[in-house]
Amino acid sequence: MKKTTLSLALAITMILSVPAVVLHPSSTVVAADASGTTASISDILKNQQQDGGWKKDYAVTSGEWAKSTIDNKATYSEIRRLASEYKKTKDSKYSAAAVKGIHFLINMQYSNGGWPQVYQSSGYHKHITYNDDAMINVMILLDEVANKKGDFSFVDSSLASKSKQAVDKGVGCILNTQVVVNGKLTAWGQQHDSSTLKPAGARVYEVPSLSASESTTIVKFLKTRTANTKITASIKAAEDWFKAVQITGIKVVKENGDVVVVKDSSAKTPIWARLYEIGTNKPIFVGRDGVVKYNLSEIEKERRTGYAWYGSWPANVLK
């Protein structure tokens, strides 16, 4: 496998428009992006924290979300925008802030190669976070820095080298967190415990499980790495798992402000559940009571309509 550069677009879960009646399985409910995706460059500069990162919401002043984070595109978006601004203006205040942000991402990384959702945090924010492609998007950025690609041609060789080391450690973490069931590699959870490396829960409706969505983006990134025995085995195992858990014969329909699953023998194109039970590979659905259900209809309407429970995520990697 040749090493190629993964564009940022590949790392972001595909979001397609939703028809009036039938929901395309890739449709998803997206949380608000971090402030840095739309803030002015001057506000980005003003809101860079002492550690070099950024908050998700610039207006928050206390609690966990007042800490630097990679959730909802925070920090890596600011770094990208600053690097772009430096390329346009050659004003060193932008490159200096971007470099400080890159150093933050490197410092944020655990010794095992993973990244938490929130820096120096508690609870589930400490977990290695693949959820919403947070860790992979950080690795994509650092890979560009390592290779001085695009807007990062200005970085020095020392920072490029440190970024490469961080990416290599991240790949090691990915390989070490791939879940083994009955001696067989499968896929990844949305988040993994930073000590045990096992899948871990986050929000009450995000229980320890295997995720078709986040695992897809992980596989896409692994396919950009120089092939070796472990990477090749990891990709094949994940693709085999995608094939084993794909679902046909149903369609996901929006009606009367609700989302329902309807049997449809003509539905030949496979879709996937967002979450699968570890060991059984059964699709699972969880409401705000935290109780695992095996049918979407069994959880409350607010969660049925407020989360991407089905999608076509792996279709691209299986082509």
From TrEMBL:
One Pfam family linked to the record: Pec_lyase
Keyword Signal: yes
Keywords assigned by UniProt, alphabetized: Lyase, Signal
Signal peptide start-end: 1-31
GO molecular function: pectate lyase activity
UniProt EC number: 4.2.2.2
Cited InterPro entries: Pectate_lyase (IPR012669)
Organismal lineage: Bacteria, Bacillati, Bacillota, Bacilli, Bacillales
Organism expressing this protein natively: Paenibacillus woosongensis
Protein name per Swiss-Prot or TrEMBL: Pectate lyase
Superkingdom, natural source: Bacteria
